Structures are given as C-alpha cells and as structure tokens.
Amino acid sequence: MVSGLVQSGNKASVAIGSEAMQVEATTTAPGATLADTIAVPVFEAEGIAHDLEGGQLDALVDRGEARTSVGSVALTHAGSTRYLIYGLGSRDRLDGEAARRAAAAVEAEARRLGTETLCVEIPHHASDQVVEGLVEGVVLSAHRWDTRKTENSARREPATRVLLSDHQDRSAAVARGFLLATAQNCARDLQNAPPNELTPEALVARAEEIALLSEHASLETLDRAGLIAAGCGAFAAVAQGSVREPRMIILRWSPPGVDAKPLAIVGKAVTFDSGGISIKPSGGMEEMKFDMSGGATALEATAAIIELGIATPVICIVGATENLPSGSAMLPSDIVTASDGTTIEIDNTDAEGRLVLADCIVRAKAEGASRIVDFATLTGAMRIALGHAYAGLFSNSDAWAEQLLDASAESGEPLWRMPLHPSYMKMIEGRYADIRNTSSKRVAGASTGAEFIHHFAGDEIPWAHIDIAGVADGVGLPYAKHGGAGFGVRLLVCLTESLAEA
Ligand code: BES
Ligand code: ZN
Ligand code: ZN
Asked: Which of 137, 163, 184 marks a domain boundary?
C-alpha cells in the first residue's frame, strides 16, 4: 500500500496506514488553536519562551522533571489540554536532524496519549531546515510499518491533525518538509511490502502512478524479452531463474523550458535476493525483501522531484527482478554479455546487484546522462564497515562526490566516502571472460563491488555509487525505528535542487 499525497493551498495531508494526517502551518498561538496536545520547546540553559500563567512549564524544567536534551519529552496538564515540553538541546547545535529526532519523540508520546490534534510550537528564529525537520520528524515517526496486523485494538493511531505554530508564516517550509517526509514514507511502504506483492510488475504500477503526476513525465519499461533484445545479458541472467517477469523501469522527468542533459538516478530493485544457486543461509534471508530499497528510493525521489517541479531533467532507471535458484537459474561459471559488450564470468550468483546495475548504467549513458548516481543494497561488506550510521559513497569524480556530500549534509542522511582503486579493479579481472562478478579474496568487498560498476560507468562522466546495505532497513533512528528507512529520498531531492541552481 502506497501513501497518497493530497495538497491544497498550504494545507497538506497524507494517508499514513489507514489514517490520514493533515499537516498545516499556523500563526495562531498554540493555546488558541483548540489542539488537545501542545508541544512546547525548551533549549539548554534557556527559559520557556511562552510559558503558562504562573510559570508552570519553567517550574518543571527547574525541578528537572522536564529535560532539555534532544529526545526528552515531559507531560503536564492545564485545564483539559496536555502540554509536552520537548528538548531541543543547545541552541547553537540545533539543526534539521536534531529537530527530526525531537519531533519524533513528541509524536511518539502524543500518539501514546491518544492525541487527535497536535500543535507543535516552533522555537523563535528557527531556520527553514529546522521547521522542515520538525515536520519530517512527526510525519516519519507516525508512519506505520505493521499495518497488516489484523488485531489492532490496542494500537493507538497517530494524530489526524498537526499544526506548526510560529509568529511568522512558515507554510513554505512546512509544505516542503511534509512533501519530503511523505515521499520517504512512500519509499518505506514499497520497502516494507512483502515480495509476493511487491514484484517487479508492482514497481512498474507505482512508476505508472508517478508518471501521471505531470505531463512532463513519461515512462518506458523493458520486460524480459525487451531486456534480451536490448542485449542486457547481465540483467537478464539474474532474472532467468524466476517465473515472475523482470522489468527495467525508465522514468523521465523533462521540466519545461530546460534544455540540459539529464541526471541519471539508478536504483537496484531486487525484490527478493535468495542468492540464487549460490544460495544464502536461511537464517535472516527474509531481510532480502529489502534488496529493492535502492529502486524504491530512486522512484520516490523522482516523484518528489516532479511534485516540486525542480528544474533539472532526470532519468530514473530502476532494475527490478528477483534472484532465485531454479532449473533455469544462472550458474556459477556461466559467462554472460552485458549491453556494452563486456563479457562477465559469474563466480557467485549472489553478487547479482552489480549485474543488474551494469545494464542500467550502460542504458543511462546511452540516454545521454550528464551525471549518474546509483543507489543499491550492494554488499554485506559495506554494512560490516559502516553499520547503520553511514551509507558508503564511491565516485570517479571528486567534484561530484563533494556535491553528494553537500546534499547529504543538507538532508541529514550521512554518507562516508570510500575508495576506488585500480588494485580493486584488478581483483575482479576475468580468467575466462573480461571481468568476474566477485573477487576470490575475501577483502575490500564493498570496493570490488563498486569497481565492478565503475567498469560500466567509465570515467567520461561523473558517476557515484551509494551502497546502502547498512542503512536501508532496521536502522533504529527515532523517526525510522523498524522496517524500511527510505534512505536517500531527501538527499536526492537536495542534490537535484543543487543541480538546478548551478
Ligand atoms: N543484497 C546483497 C547485499 C546485502 C547483504 C544487503 C546484507 C543487505 C544486507 C547482495 O546481493 C549480496 O548478496 N552481496 C554479496 C556479494 C558477495 C557474494 C561478493 C555479499 O555481500 O555477501
Ligand atoms: Zn545477492
Ligand atoms: Zn542483492
């Protein structure tokens, strides 16, 4: 189930699970809004800006019952209204990420209390990034990942209305935070959906919806026969063990009046990675439904880019397939030919993501992309190296890597640059063909995976590979504790905006 976005004026509402949450900016003072729960900010070493009569809230801070650290929330009542004093830490360290974490704690407590209308007081002099962060924290935290549970009587639903109150009109920042968080939640819905439903064809159905968002968007797809006809022998080899049809999804955004080559956003969408004939151990294999996370990010970021009307042409290419063992599956030692003519020795059928991406990246270049960025849950090694804290960034261009790091700093989705090196490329030199899909040495697994993709991306145009194996799901963030995290949606929007400004 994919959340739908409805917007009218500066009001925006989104379907979260089965409930709708309406989010609005207001210049009405919190106490005059008729909200049943009011969240009031407090900074380290500062008093409450708008206290109740008698200094009731400051008194709680003075007694240490309400704390100022990010994530702290203290409850008190005045009349029939609940007050949540929420910590924002020290004022000089307040950024979008602190706001997201603080707002997520507010949302969780408001939900526990059965809040219907929540009013969040925005602190004085908050930047747009902080306002967006507050909205994102609430909307991301309210996202439900267990909507398929039928016995839900004990579960509290999120607030149906959320107001963000400031002296000034903050409706633009509220609308942007809402749109970004909603797009991220849509990616999480795709991630969390089970692989019997979220098939390559189901991803096409979502791409069709996205293409309808604008007359300047269009969709093309290649099915199994189309992939074979286009010479995508690497991608087709991964799909050949599956009864379900693979798809290469090509979604174009051509903003009117912009005559530039497109940014290619490429995503790995293996809707279930069993490993194929090189089958994975069964313990934990269920997590491999998340192996389509890169594709989910690419699609939903493109949807947000279209909705925001960003003046950067985009070509979003998603490689969607299962990776299963069967009598028709590819075999270790098979040799396949990618669409650029490279011959590839399949050493390990579980290194399938790079095979899918190879043909997607060749296609991105053939489409005349000015730059390429790919998102993929590519290697377990990346997760071992960086855990849930950072995604790994590999690039053939320092300038492009810097631009990605800037977008990452702006969106609050951390990237850490990892190395490419000719010696890693050497480790995947072929014996019987041009190149092998794995190295025989169990070292530098994330970098040899990246070098495999680098072979197809080449050095003519800036390319970056983002290995999200550690950050795609189960990351335990206050606003994305369980299931899919939707990593990279906000980052891609910031990146695309930075290209439009250039
Ligand atoms: N989808 C996996 C990578 C992965 C592992 C993502 C754990 C998230 C969590 C990928 O297709 C894979 O299986 N990679 C292999 C490569 C190896 C065979 C060189 C891996 O990392 O073990
Ligand atoms: Zn695999
Ligand atoms: Zn995989």
From this structure: 184
Domain coverage including residue 24: 3-184
159, 122: one domain: yes
Residue 20 pLDDT > 90:
no
The CA 379 to ligand 2 mean position distance, Å, reads 8
pLDDT of res. 27: 98
pLDDT per position as a tens digit, 282-331: 999 999 999 999 999 999 999 999 999 999 999 999 999 999 999 999 99
Do 238 and 129 belong together in one domain?
no
SS3 category, 24 = strand
CB of 427 within 6 A of ligand 1: the answer is no
Residue nearest to atom 3 of ligand 1 (CA): 379
User: Is 354 assigned a catalytic role?
Assistant: yes
Q: Which of 11, 67, 280, 481 is catalytic?
A: 280
Give the domain CATH number at 373. 3.40.630.10
Give yes or no for a contact between 108 and 151, defined as CB atoms under 8 angstroms apart: no
Q: What is the CA radius of gyration of the chain?
A: 24
Q: Which ligand 1 atom sits closest to the C-alpha of 270? A: 1
CA dihedral 176, 179, 183, 184 (to 10 degrees): 50
Residue 4 has pLDDT above 60, yes or no: no
Residues 69 and 151 in one domain: yes
